[in-house]
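seq/struct pair 1
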Amino acid sequence: MKNYPKSKICIAHSAPVYLDVNKTVDKIISIIDEASRNGAELVVFAEVFLPAFPIWCAIRPPTENHDFFKLLAQNSIYIDGPEISKISEFAKKRKIIVSLGFNELSKNSVGCIWNSNIIIGKDGKINSHHRKITPTFYEKLVWSHGDGSGLKVNETDIGKIGMLICGENTNPLARYSLLAQGEQIHISTYPPVWPTHYPLTDTNYDLKSAIQIRAKGHSFEGKLFNLVCSSFLDKKTVEIVSGNNTELASYLDQVPNGISMVTNPNGETISNILQNEEGLLYCDIDISECVIPKQYHDVVGGYQRFDIFELSVNRNPQTPITLETHNEI
């Protein structure tokens, strides 16, 4: 008989120590420790939590952001660096799954940064490494394009886990590629704010509303749990990004913040919604709740027409160069 796992999860609606990689790693370790002591089997961190989301590229012209970009690069990390190793070892020690967003460096270029996410298993091993497929809007000033190699679902003892970063949750093909692999738990990560108009107007992007639409939609379509994690905008971050510009500081204090929440297979919110305060959000999930709704709309089973629709995903990692070695005569 099939057993459907139940588990307690934790979402870190938290602020990094902005642009300080070492102090942010320490904060991550502290949060993992607290989540595990409270019985969580999975803890989720926000988009590029380590060491920060580049808010400056939304509210300052590119000509003013060179120092910010250099500082971000200096505090970004390699996938095989000591920071990931330290976090992975602690995850293994606490026997907890960790989903971590971070700014990833390339060993081929000192100026190439990816918006990346890894899922670390209870054994401390990296089960998934995903780079955001396409940076959104002004994010293109900071991050490089990722590839499809990380579009995979991880089989774990709490369920089948997939994840997408921020605007990727607007991409129906990216979402379907995870659903078609049997996704049961979806992780969606977001920044603390995502400004679209300056100065502030009524037409500014409502991040809370946008997140809810996407989270509920994916849960309802896929009949799964959606774990939404946004980071928190603290006063220190506002001070760093705005500098001595009181107008920018005032703007950041008013722009709509992101939210953290959990939705169930019927598209309903089943947790508190964290937005304007920092904290850890806990929620119990039961994979058996994914079964009955599949009777109605199983878009990767009986409610799909595979003879009409076809999706092909290239999951080959992309590299800047292929070096061939030829034997010299």
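seq/struct pair 2
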Amino acid sequence: MLALSDEQLQFRDSLQRLLRADYSFERRREIANSTLGWSRETWRQLAELGVLALALPEAHGGFGGGAMDTLVVMEECGRSLLLEPYLPTVVLGAGLIARVGSSTQCAAILPAVGAGERQLAFAHYEPAARYALDVVATDARRDGESWVVTGAKTYVLNGIAADQLIVSARTPKGLTLFMIDRTTPGVQLRDYPMYDSQRAADLRLDAVRVGAAAQLGEEGAAAAPIAATIDAAIAAVCAEAVGAMTVLLEATGAYLKTRKQFGVPIGSFQVLQHRMADMLLETEAARSMALLASSRLGTAGTAERRRIVSAAKVRVSEAARFVGQQAVQLHGGIGVTDELAVSHYFRRLTMIEMAFGDVDYHLEAVGRHLFE
């Protein structure tokens, strides 16, 4: 049976208390409308609680947690609609560095991430690639002791705030990763808010020159760690979706008990009770798949891991769409207003459904991985 440990439950309770006290819906709206788009104070509090260091290696200032610990954090991110860049900095950026970085690179970056002093962004997807991980046209060529990187990336989460960008590029030996400071000459970022109030950026690299030390991992060997990191991110957003669906379920149930029609609460109508029951079933099915995906990240073989993660993304995305749509419909016209939290949860679930591959993409992936 998949279940959280006592330590994980205690940590979840601590994180819940922090976010409930300091991250109300009204506070989130203020943060979303700020210039930065996230809160430095909340980021500092997360670091002090140990959230940012939880999944980092013990050798580099972390607590040595795994995917199930990340699941705990991401589910609470979903419950609070957290805007702070935990996913791009810790799951994607630090996850890649921990997988392929040298001891020097890990020692220089990971402790600073855990302390909340450094943020990261992973720049991999390109305009022509859609969701495919192997479509990379960005080019890196040697020039003496340096690398010169040229290309374009899209959907770079936290790109404008990151201290360092982890960029994938083609070299003569294959797919390779590079760490590039955001302020390096030739780096151009166009920041934009997304539908769910989170922020991303488009990146252009115009003959960006970096030293040999910027290479992350072995030249030409980045495909496997990139795939593993994206799988970890998919498992993470599945957990986040479960947190968001749980809140929608609770909010909709409370609304049906108070909204009256014909002199009685509409929650007494059997047809609406059935819809609530369906929402509960979908949420619990999504929870089971999110738990399965996170629990197998570190133990399954590559083909099995990809199949399980893709299956989880399909099932969670379908559940997220159903629960989100039902919550909006059962709230009526106010369900789509900006003043009501329900509409914001629906937006985030819609973005999660498309993140790192939509339902059609992962259905095809499940079939493909069955024969690997």
